[in-house]
Amino acid sequence: MSIVSTSSAADDQLRPPVPPGSVTLRINGQEHTLRLAPWTSLLDALREYVGLTGTKKGCDHGQCGACTVLVDGKRINSCLTLAVLQEGADITTIEGLGTPEHLHPLQQAFIDHDAFQCGYCTPGQICSAQGLINEGKAHTEDEIRELMSGNICRCGAYVGILNAVKEVAEKELKMASCTCYGSHGHSSNS
Amino acid sequence: MSTDSNTKYVGKAPNRVDGPLKVTGTAKYAAEFDVPDLAYGYVVSSPVAKGRIRKIHADKVLGLPGVLHVFSHENVPGLAWFDRSYKDDVAPGGSPFRPLHDDEIKFNMQPVALVVADTFELARYAASILEVEYEVEKHETDIESKRDEGYEPGRGKTGYMPPQRREDADKGLEQSAHRIRHEYIHGAQHHNPMEMFGATVHYHPDGKLTIYDKTQGVYNCQQYITKIFGLSKDEARVVNLFMGGGFGSGLRPQYELFLSVLAALELKRSVRVTLTRQQMFSFGHRPHTLQTLELGTGPDGALLGLKHYALHETSRFEDYTENVVNWSGMLYKCPNVRLSYGISPLDVYTPLDMRAPGAATGSFALEVAMDEMAYEAGLDPLEFRRRNYAEEDQNKKAPFSSKKLREAYDEGARRFGWDKRPMAPRATREGNLLVGWGVAGGVWDASMQKAAAKATITADGRLTVASAAGENGTGTYTIMAQIAAETLGLPLEAVTVRLGDTTLPEAPLQGGSWTAASVGTAVKNTCEALGEKLLKLAQKMDDSPLKDAKPEDVEFVNGLIRLRKEPQQSVVLRDVLQVSGEREIEVDSSAMPNPVNMQKYSMHSHNVVFAEVKVDEELGTVHVTRVVNVVAAGRILNQKTARSQVLGSVVWGISMALMEETVMDHRYGRYMNHNYAEYHVPTNADVRGIEVYFVEEEDPHVNPLGVKGIGEVGLLGVAAAITNAVYHATGKRVRSLPIYLDKLL
Ligand code: FES
Ligand code: FES
């Protein structure tokens, strides 16, 4: 028999941690001023402080993509960034893309292709797909499969996800390459 | 309900009615309900597999401002004394795990404390520095070392069937012209639904609780909580509106439920507890299983003898059982059969049903063995299966209520192009890739449970149907809306479905592929009962053309009640409601399986899977490039959601064959790859062409809807078909999953 002891805390760890501070985030075009601990992730800020629970937590370690949001048009894992680091940025969550009454084309395509089952990975998949289109990629099926592979779907709805993204990307990329290029609203980040 | 050929919704492919909520992030999962004055709990997990907790030094973290409490066995108040109070509806035999009950450590990552604080960030921080002292004892976690110690469980959980034998398997094998005997293994697998377990407990001012929990059965959770904490049903309402995947993991209450309720009651405050992805590996799993299969055939390829033995792990405290070997006595015709089964306790948490429990395991071994046997007998693997087709269920000695597996073979072979397959392995190359084709299949129970439902129609013609069933991605909201709309002739948009709440009529656990049959029939019966009430009201109207009609004389179509024989004689449903003066009309009803039919028939769904793989021999990598999965599961209620379930099953099968395994470090009795980066599941790039087909069966015996359930059968045979395809490509027979690349080098 042996004795083990876990995490015997150093004295400085037992002092009260850094107190909450004020952070202002621009989410879906709206400013939110929050009081939160400086080590709060953007994901937890959205879910627990702003009440935007459309962004999901599947691992909290950057391994699943469920927490994908768009920051200045680029897709990121919101569990891997701190809320305080995103002050001044334009954050778009699934709630900012569309609503049940006014669906975004990707949201409609996901429904039409039944590109989900439980729906838990879905907001992340859709934000990721929008990020992919913003990057000007998604030209071929293989490209979509590969570049959507940061988003796990445990229900295994990949066939539907591919078809939904393909349908919207084809339309969007066609528009992007026509004369209206540049006025379409998507910033090219590549 | 209207006749088959003439349905508007049932059997068609409408979009999911809850789709708009899911794609916009509006659907609320357990950890997402907004309740006032919420405190957060964070679970501390044991780093040792066996031993005792000597001391929890809670005083230190309690000094942090904002930390409210550290719950542990040292301070948990007296709760239910008998451990049967902790038994949930599907607990196996034994003594269930009681969180924070005493100082004993029974498995690695056992919850030993719950730190509660004003914010999630603080609770997590405090939990990370909480000091716990353990006395470590020697553990055993390796089933391989217990090969000879398996025992047949005396009794199993609900649905467990002791293995059978018929005639003399040894003699059958001795008389065989061709024989094989091999061992097949797969490691532990964890369900890993996308949504992690979590609960939000709303503590109301009157002390009552509304508990939003991740579960596949709100009633199961309610009875568990009320028994343990001595609450009345009225004091503990359990709600689950959407579940971010279950796959069996939510069949039994998990410890976030106990811990969050404990904290809420003690602190008289609302509490949320969510587990981490690492902690998702700290409870039930598909057990590590060792199987031996022995087959023998006559010179013509007819099976003469079959022996199948399975041994898997269980915990020290419960006898977890599953039907692993039974399927081998019924999928093919064989006169001499011996099935046997053992379990062996280890210092792990009790395993837990995971999608097609037992059958996913058993069909892998049986179907790879069948492939080996076919090669031994010199027969095409599909032809070999046809020769041994089971016309009746030999286990039960009963006819099948319906079985179109032969038609599924034909359909699948045609779609896949099986007739172009060369028999010899290593016969097809594409550049530096070896190409192989494999086939396999399976059988699964078509079950039904008692279920109840309620239907309410309001004066504006809107219908609400309600039952405490769950939605974990299977499409429950959608198929219930279809059935209700069809039965009462209403547009789908006029129907609202309510699920997942203990204030609604009771439904069985969401599992076993029985929700469509059970809750679907309850919804149908309830809507029919409502229809009869509406007919009576219609008959009271002045000059009603339906005056003398009996319920069977009328049909509900397009918002009308009309005579079947004279469809022009009708009344408008909405007029009936308006004239009646009632604001709303409500009925309750329920559904039960038919015991006579259950006795008389064997009720099962079947499938067959054809797979193509491409193997890079130098690298050992396998890509599944094509899968055709043909399912015979009675009637299909929704072509879209049913197809999605089978597509998902194929992804699960690819995962089981090539990726998925929880690896134990036996030195510590701890799973090593307990996160989403190292526990591999397929991503989009791993999935190529999958085709799904249904061979629909008209089955008047199975249940009034004629459905057999679709959530599990589609997984069967997928891993075996891939394994067989790998053999066909490379000539290497792999008998342990997953097929990592080193097994092919
Ligand atoms: S929650 Fe952020 S990647 Fe999984
Ligand atoms: S829809 Fe369930 S995880 Fe993707």
From TrEMBL, chain A:
PROSITE patterns recorded: 2FE2S_FER_1, 2FE2S_FER_2
Source taxon at top rank: Bacteria
Pfam families xref list: Fer2, Fer2_2
Residues annotated as domain 2Fe-2S ferredoxin-type: 21-97
Composition bias type Polar residues, residue spans: 1-10
UniProt keyword annotations, A-Z: 2Fe-2S, Iron, Iron-sulfur, Metal-binding, Oxidoreductase
Region of interest called Disordered, as start-end residue ranges on this chain: 1-20
InterPro entries assigned to the protein according to its UniProt record, in alphabetical order: 2Fe-2S-bd, 2Fe-2S-bd_dom_sf, 2Fe-2S_ferredoxin-like_sf, 2Fe-2S_ferredoxin-type, 2Fe2S_fd_BS, Aldehyde_Oxdr_Iron-Sulfur, Beta-grasp_dom_sf
GO molecular function (one): metal ion binding
Annotated protein name in UniProt: 2Fe-2S iron-sulfur cluster binding domain-containing protein
Taxonomic lineage of the native organism: Bacteria, Pseudomonadati, Bacteroidota, Cytophagia, Cytophagales
Automatic annotation (TrEMBL), chain B:
GO MF term list: iron ion binding; oxidoreductase activity
Residues covered by the Aldehyde oxidase/xanthine dehydrogenase a/b hammerhead domain: 24-138
Residue stretches of biased makeup (Basic and acidic residues): 141-155
Region (Disordered): 141-167
SMART domains: Ald_Xan_dh_C
SUPFAM superfamilies: CO dehydrogenase molybdoprotein N-domain-like, Molybdenum cofactor-binding domain
Gene3D superfamilies: Aldehyde oxidase/xanthine dehydrogenase, a/b hammerhead, Aldehyde oxidase/xanthine dehydrogenase, molybdopterin binding domain
One Pfam family matching this protein: Ald_Xan_dh_C
Protein name: Xanthine dehydrogenase family protein molybdopterin-binding subunit
Organism (species): Hymenobacter gummosus
